[in-house]
Structures are given as C-alpha cells and as structure tokens.
Amino acid sequence: MLNSIRKYICLSIILIFAFYSYSQTNVIDSLKNELLKHSKKDTVRAELLIHLVSEMTYSNPKEAFPLIDESIKISKSKKWIEGEILGLRQKGNLYYVLADNLNALDSYQNALVLSENITDRQLKSSLLSNIGNIYADLKAYDKALENYYEYLKTAQTFGSRSDEIKALSNIGIIYNDSKNYEKGISNLEKALRLAKLENNNLFMAAITNNLALAQKNVGKYEMALDNYHKAIDLAHLINNKYIEASSLNSIGKINSLLNQNSQAKEYANRALSISKEIGAVEWEADSWSVLSNTYEKQGDMNRALSAYKKYILLRDSVLSEEKKSELTRKEMQYKMEHQLAISEEEIKRERLVKNTYLIGSIFLLFFGALGYFFYKRRRDALEKKKIAEFNAQVAETELKALRSQMNPHFIFNSLNSISDFISKKDIKQANDYLIKFSKLTRSILENSEKKRITLKEDLKLMELYIELETLRLEKELKSSISVHKSIDIDNTLIPPLILQPFIENSIWHGVAPKKGIGQIDIDIKPDKNILVCYVDDNGVGSSKSLNQTIKEKSYGVKITSNRIDIINHLKNTEGSLKFIDKNEGVRVEIRLPFESKF
Q1: Cβ neighbours of residue 477 under 8 Å, at least 6 residues apart?
Q2: How confident is the model at residue 347 (pLDDT cuts 50, 70, 90)?
Q3: Cβ-count burial of 260 within 10 angstroms (0-12 exposed, 13-18 middle, 19+ buried)?
Q4: How far apart are CA 448 and CA 444, in angstroms?
Q5: Which parts pass through the membrane (predicted)?
Q6: Where in the chain is the domain with CATH 3.30.565.10?
Q7: Fewest CB within 10 angstroms: 54, 358, 396, 503, which?
Q8: Distance of CA 160 to the CA centre of its chain
C-alpha cells in the first residue's frame, strides 16, 4: 500500500498562498471567485489555477485535471517556464493521488527536463523528491533516500521550513518501510515539531498519520490509535478526505488485531464510503481487505470471500495497462485513415488525368484506355499489398502492446509476494525470495524486447517462478517439467512467458485452496508443425464455473489468448488455447507454431 505521507506532504506547490487559518472550502470558493473576475489568459490566471488545483488535490482530484491543463496551456503560450513546471508537477500530483504512477512519473520527468532551463535549484530538488516518491513506492529505498536527502540539503540551504518538513517526513517513512523504526520515528517527530511551528494542519495531519503507522508496526497500539484519531480531527479541519480515509482504515486494522471486530467493521465501512466518494482506489481496496479479515474472524466466510475478491479486483486495477493498448490502437487507426485519404486523393488526380486524355483523338483514347487497364491492374495489386502490409503492422503493434502488459502484470504479482514476507517479518524467507526475484526480474527485463526466446530460457524462468510462488504458498508444492526427446530446447523458440499465466492460475486457483500436497506438471510435445504445451495441476479446479471465471477475469489468460490469435494472424497458423477438466484439477493445452532458431 502506498505510504500516505508521500501523497500528503510532497505534493504542495512552491507558491506563497497557503493559509490554513480558515477552512479549505472557503479557500476553494475564494479562488474560484478570483478566477471568475480574472478571465484574461495570462500568468496571473495560470498561477490562480495552480493554487486552486493544489487545494482540490485531495478532495476532488478528478475535476481538477481540466483546470491544470488550462494552466499549463497558458504558461506555454506566455513562455512562462516556471509556471509550466509547476503545472506539470501539480498534474503529476493528481495522477499520484489516483494511484496512476505511470502518468505521474511522466509529468514529473517532463517538469524536470524543463527545470534545466531555470536557475531555481529548490524547485528542481522538489521534483527529485516527487520522483523519489515513485521509487519509494517501488521499494527502491536507496534511490529514494538519495533523492530525499538531496531535497533536505537544498531546503536547509535556502531556509525553506516547509520543504525541510516534507524531506524529513519522507526520509522517516523510508526508514519505517525498511524496518528501521528508530530512525523513522525520530525523523517523523522532527518533522512534526517543525510543522507545529508552521501551524500547518495539512502537514501535521499527514505526519501524525504516518507516526501512528510506525507506532502500530512496533506494537504500540494505544499510542497509534491516539495519533490516528488526532490525524482524523486535523483532516476534518482542512477537509482532507484522503488522510481521513487512510486513518480510518488504519484504526480498523488495529481494532482487527485486537479482535475488536465490530469497531473494525465500523471504521472500515466509514473509510470505504469516503474512498468511493473521492475515487481513491487504493484506499477502497484497503477497506475491503480490512473487512475481509474481520468477516473471516467472525466466521462469516461468504462475506469474507466476497470482500477479498473486491480487494483483489481493485488492487489489480491500479496497474491496468488497458489504456496503453487503447492508445496504440487509436494511433494505428489514425495512420490507416490518413493513408487511405492520401490514396483517395491520388485516385482523384489520376481520374482527372484520364478525363483529359479522353478529350483527345480516338487513337489516343484507345491506347489511353488500354494503358489505363494495365495501370489499374498494377495499381490494385499494389494497393492490396499496401493494405496487407499495413494490417500486419497493426497486428505487430498490438502484439507489442500485449507483451508490454504481460511483464508488468507478472512483476506486480511478484512484488506482492515479497511484500507478504516482509509484512510477516520473515527476513530469511524475504532475503531468499529477493535473491531469486532479482534473478527472475533481470531475465524478464533482458527478454522484454524479444519476440521469441529459446524454450530452454523460458522453462528456466518458469522453474524460478514456481520456486518463488512455492515460498509464498506456505504449503508443499511439487512440480515437474518434461520435454519430448525429439525437441531441441536450445533451438526451439516460443513467445516469452507464454506459460506463466496458466502456472499462476494452477497455483492460486487450483493448488492453494486444495488440502494436501499440490502438484503441477509441465509437458512439452511435438505434433507435426505444432508445439503442444500442457500445464496440469491436481487442484480444486474441476468446477466448470470456476474455470469459466478464471478465463473471463484473468488478465494474463486474456492477454495470452490474444497473443496466440495475433501469432496465428501473422504466421497463418492454427495455435489454440484449451481448458480441460479432469477428475482432480485442470489441464491447459497451449498449441503454438513450431519455430526454430536456425
């Protein structure tokens, strides 16, 4: 789960406007009135828009996007580079609050490039802090600390107390995330003292919330509950529903740990209502997680399962890559329409030339018609060739888009596995997992741009993946990989990670719910010009309704099915995907065109 302080503290802009002596609602209304009075498209309006969006970031982020886009547009037209940087940074903040790290990072990096053209080191260092937040979320702690300490150094050099507060807060959170709670709490307490001197309710609310999280992690539940309630009171004062939802979820978690299930449900439901109101998907997922645990403790397994499914669905939606695929398709559609428009213009010109020749003599008409016949036949052949080539280009681009979805989805699940071990404080298992995961990640990154890899490389990846998931599964899981002797695994090529979604489904939808020892078998056989891959498990997946749910809901299965369809289109083959029910477990049959390296 994203650490709250990075979404509450580091997203403020460097403008001397923020006064929290009166309510945020009054500030927003006042700024809107100022904008109505100042309709001129100048830097004053751009500055007002940035300030208004800053106030709306945590209460109404979705409606703030048109306002910040207008500010960036005005700044560009007036060549106000600093305003454009501030606008891009605030747009990144909006994306970050909505858990869209990809677009957030894009906005921050664009702002950082522009900052090379100004002399404001303080502004540039704050952008490094925002990018540090992304690194922190990805658990790249060393890189995040490097950015945050540079930010702290610059803040102290320029005497900016608010930036110093933000830097200390984020440094504290990094230490807490890496289990160094003594340093983490120390830095948060320093930040809180400075925030009180500034009388900044936003900073105090966010820091108090994170201080409570650190206290909860070291088992000081009473102190943590006291600070969470303080954070909620401060959040009410400034109408910051984002902090309020986070604190409510955290109180629910502590109540659940203390077996105070009624209170846990009450706070989780309050957080859920607020999260839905402001569109905070990750907090909504967090609420369902608390509710799932609470229902399970109360023995209400149906509600527990329903809540857990909602949690998983919302969690996975945060990293959805569907928008990227849609963008690729739209770009290709535009190119197609553009090329067809050009072709139509060429045809019109050619007809005009033909009509001119028809005015001439019968002799020229005869030979002109004959020449046009041969020309038309050749032109039609060329047009068909162009269309065929273009269709292939579209299919190839979509295939690239699908591959770009596969690897992030797989890496995201693996990161969750590491998070599970860390949360359980199983350091040895976490270290073992991290070592294996680093090997796996490196292999995935090395193969991410390849259309095909050898069967040997892919099976090694699958062996390592099964080892990782076995560690996470916490039960005995046996596996085997069998390749027919006629298949040269060093020379046979397959799309990378084509089997991974089905192994994942076998583990988590088949073997995990099963009592007793789990078994997963991978069998590779030839069938003429087809490579047949079987993934067998002995899990609980004999239910057809369960298999149908897997096929309809699993992103990995959908993506793999589309990959096979595109391979069939490009190579005119008959690859296929089939789910086969067994008396015990499920068999998945993947048929791929046989390709060799040499």
Answers
A1: 466, 469, 470, 507, 511, 517, 518, 519, 520
A2: low
A3: middle
A4: 6
A5: 357-375
A6: 400-596
A7: 358
A8: 33
For the chain, the helix, strand and coil percentages under 3-state DSSP, each to the nearest 5: 70, 10, 20
Residue 79 phi/psi, 5° resolution? Answer: 55, 35
Closest to 585 (Cα-Cα) out of 481, 484, 511: 511
The domain made up of 4-239 is a member of CATH 1.25.40.10: yes
Helix (H, G, I), strand (E, B) or coil at 478: strand
CA distances from 301 to 66, 256, 257, 275, 289 (A): 44, 16, 18, 24, 14
Tokens of 25: 């609602």
Distance CA(114)–CA(92), nearest Å, equals 14
Question: Residue 111, CB half-sphere, CA atoms under 13 Å: how many?
Answer: 31
In the CATH scheme, what is the code of domain 400-596?
Answer: 3.30.565.10
Q: How many CA atoms lie within 13 A of 40 on its CB side?
A: 5
pTM of the model: 0.41
| Sheet of strand 453-454, all strands in order from the earlier edge strand to the far edge | 453-454, 492-494, 595-596
pLDDT band at residue 522 under the 50/70/90 scheme = very high
- Is residue 479 within 8 Å of 444, Cβ to Cβ? no
